[in-house]
């Protein structure tokens, strides 16, 4: 079977199940059902505070075959996923499925657990480091399911993925299960991605290293969703919580691309009062924000909101009055955490509110401009941020496809060539985000506009921006690098890439050799 | 059939259905299910803003037999319930069931709609004024179902009551359905009681007179739950939003009772650091807060939280540092609204988090002391706040039974005699809250302790408080008033009083003559 993008995908994938093929970014809207939830009610006098992770594992009756979930707000500083799986492994339990909103290099111990059958399934929106590599090498028994930041809450809410136990790393909690991320040694700010887990898991365990007297205000996740609370010495390393990617580009190429992207936004007519904006936390993407900041200041423009994972750069724009509000699903640095804690204009949002296509309207739907990165782009504007050009998994959508689908103007900013490899290709190794959602590709050597955006082509042709076709951009890249060698794959599927609506947009196969 | 309190209740009540008899305050804890939710997803570009209530009625396909819901945060200033039902009536629609968290005198127009069959069912937690009187006279086709503030969200979440359309009066909203109650002409603060309606109704319509640019931060109810937004000229009269009952008692009897109640709290050992406290908004109840305030200040005590409907008096205690936090499901006055808006220690909560017995632990579960009012109390400590001694409905539980069930010390404060009628009786006209949840009754002529609280009796006997039995208290009252005449009722059931778990604790029959 081929899906609408021409990708060969089996009807049925062993260890995944029946495939719903991707059928276009807008194909799945309509009547949706949020799943029922079973819980055990808590009566006056009941206690939730347990003495150890082991006691929690007893209480939730952990057993073979369960799906357990984690949020990734502690990023590469997270201790909780490793500690929980370690304790589970010690019990001789097998066949655990990990539903983690993202997986980082710190989660390397999972590789051993994959090899010995403790962990046989992973569902995640982003995966990098040793675990990603091990998946690509075929060490996980079933294909990893790659979701999006909006697709995961959709899947959880719909009941497609059922979480038996959610383990919520809680920077601050009280003994009755109220949680916030704004205080404590591992303060990470918004806990947006943990919200659906708390709401829909059969059992919810909060794990904290900062147990405070009741109530742990401001409450981000409420006692009404939490079964048990465990106090541990440390839930994470603050140094790893702040993402290493949140540094603004200083190199001339990155800055040039950022300036061009800002000019594209301007020429397209999107820089105006009440505009909304989101950018990734990569260096070039952040540099676009800096360019936008200059223009907004110069012209006295006040935008509606900036959204996303929030960095200090975006907080500055709020503080300068360039946006009325921020929507924050995840704080990337301490400045963002403090602003989220102290400024009521800095509004939190759960993962569903951020990006689900199956609720009554996600925040991404209201984005004017989204600045995105890419590992590869093809001449149909399909974007890969899942695998490297070597075929190895090194990321995933995160909010890429969600924001691209929602934004009126989705701009990919990228160097034309990276590490002597062309970024624009005939076919991307893996499709993460469909080309229909991408409007413009900005590189230092030219700008390509998606042909379906005739309105944009018309506007931008009037500018003196270097507009060329995506094919011309590809040719330029290949002239610099030569045509790259094709990566060789086996037939074994190691990852199923779900679009935000749960259809399969692509699969990743095991790399040969 | 008699329930555990000896109340005669049919197995089946016409217009209500099969009866689950009340079987004790703790009988229903255990495994619970939250209902699934059906919704229509909203895609990028879709608009939610409609031009009129009539357009909204078209969009939600309003029709005979539907259940429509309302919150009561605008109290006796609410225009929305009347306006919606007016438009529905104009369409010739019949058999509407109103699920309103409370009903006030301003809702008098419902009486006509009841008489002409537009409205044939009412589910509410509190009902006063002409509608209550009309129900008592038998004008509603089916018995009104009286729930509690915690029982209503339980019922909605469980699917027992299914809301077809929730109409949410929104003091501030944006065109995409984000709502807050802290700005606008009809600012009412917390929108806690509207939360389950937004989450579980098939369709949700926000009606606002303060449409602001997106996003309407701070968001209390999110766009992910709202289908449509309607802008009207006015959603309510601010004068009616501030409850008339929130004036502290100045009369010597009220003050004496308050002082005695505070001494009971003290002698019982509940006035100490980390204590939690809630009081009703009646004059004597508020006077207890004032007494507590003095003691806490004198002794340098810092409590954990105060909860409930919040008044300026309680805000003062927060501001003075006497409590670390407030939990607010409803603001009773402007000072509470402003504090809720500006002070992050003043935490909002939804109706379920406040009082549902079927989630993972409501805030009421953590109450140390609850100060309650009463219309009647019987010698089993059962309390009536549903009907007057004349048998006419004049209130309802609100949070009475929820807080009484949760609090470690539930104190009823009341004059022994009101309007020449005794408050303590052999049998209350209607049981709202079971005696097992009431620990102490404080009157100006004596204090009765529930015999099951042997610990309290022991502690309080050591004080020089006037402890007597409830029977003695009853005798004292009757000596002053004589034995009151029995009210005569027909056999027609006009109200079914549900305990917070959905069992039937009592019924109200039509008054004869």
UniProtKB/TrEMBL annotation, chains A, B:
This is Citrate lyase alpha chain. Gene3D superfamilies: Glutaconate Coenzyme A-transferase. The keyword Lyase applies. The lineage of its organism: Bacteria, Bacillati, Bacillota, Clostridia, Eubacteriales. Pfam families: CitF. InterPro entries: Citrate_lyase_asu, NagB/RpiA_transferase-like. It catalyses: citrate + acetyl-CoA = (3S)-citryl-CoA + acetate; citrate = oxaloacetate + acetate. Its EC number is 2.8.3.10, 4.1.3.6.
């Amino acid at each position: 079977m081929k899906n609408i993008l021409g990708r060969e995908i089996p009807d049925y994938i062993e260890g995944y199940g029946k495939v719903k093929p991707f059928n276009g970014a807008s194909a799945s809207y309509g009547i949706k059902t949020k799943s029922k939830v079973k819980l055990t009610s808590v009566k006056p006098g009941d206690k939730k505070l347990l003495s150890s992770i082991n006691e929690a594992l007893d209480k939730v009756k952990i057993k073979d075959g369960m799906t357990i979930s984690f949020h990734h707000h502690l990023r590469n500083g997270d201790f909780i996923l490793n500690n929980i799986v370690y304790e589970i492994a010690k019990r001789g339990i097998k066949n655990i499925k990990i539903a983690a909103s993202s997986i980082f290099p710190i989660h390397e111990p999972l590789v051993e657990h994959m090899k010995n059958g403790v962990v046989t399934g992973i569902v995640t929106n982003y995966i990098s480091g040793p675990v990603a590599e091990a998946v690509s090498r075929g060490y996980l028994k079933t294909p990893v399911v790659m979701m999006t930041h909006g697709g995961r809450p959709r899947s959880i809410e719909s009941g497609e993925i059922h979480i038996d136990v959610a383990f919520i790393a809680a920077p601050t909690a009280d003994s009755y299960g109220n949680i916030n991320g704004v205080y404590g040694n591992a303060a990470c700010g918004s806990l947006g991605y943990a919200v659906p887990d708390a709401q829909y898991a059969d059992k919810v365990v909060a794990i904290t290293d900062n147990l405070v007297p009741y109530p742990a205000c401001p409450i981000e996740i409420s006692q009404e969703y939490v079964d048990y609370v465990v106090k541990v010495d440390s839930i994470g390393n603050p140094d790893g919580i702040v993402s290493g990617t949140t540094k603004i580009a200083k190199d001339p190429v990155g800055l040039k691309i950022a300036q061009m992207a800002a000019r594209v936004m301007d020429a397209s007519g999107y820089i105006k009062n009440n505009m909304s904006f989101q950018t990734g936390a990569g260096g070039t993407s952040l540099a676009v924000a800096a360019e936008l900041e200059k223009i907004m200041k110069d012209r006295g423009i006040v935008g509606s909101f900036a959204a996303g994972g929030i960095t200090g750069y975006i907080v500055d724009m709020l503080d300068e009055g360039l946006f009325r509000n921020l929507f924050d699903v995840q704080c990337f640095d301490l400045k963002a955490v403090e602003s989220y804690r102290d400024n009521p204009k800095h509004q939190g949002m759960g993962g569903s509110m951020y990006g689900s296509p199956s609720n009554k309207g996600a925040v991404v739907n209201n984005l004017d401009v989204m600045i995105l990165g890419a590992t590869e782009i093809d001449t149909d504007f399909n974007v890969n941020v899942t695998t490297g050009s070597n075929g190895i998994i090194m990321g995933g959508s995160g909010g890429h496809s969600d924001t691209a689908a929602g934004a009126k103007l989705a701009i990919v900013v990228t160097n034309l060539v990276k590490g002597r490899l062309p970024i624009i290709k005939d076919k991307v190794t893996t499709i993460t985000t469909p080309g229909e959602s991408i409007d413009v590709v900005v590189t230092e050597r030219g700008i390509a506009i998606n042909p379906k955006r005739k309105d944009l082509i018309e506007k931008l042709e009037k500018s003196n921006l270097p507009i060329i076709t995506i094919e011309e951009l590809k040719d330029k890249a290949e002239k610099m690098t030569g045509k790259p060698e094709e990566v060789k794959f086996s037939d074994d599927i190691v990852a199923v890439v779900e679009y935000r609506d749960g259809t399969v947009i692509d699969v990743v196969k095991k790399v040969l050799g």
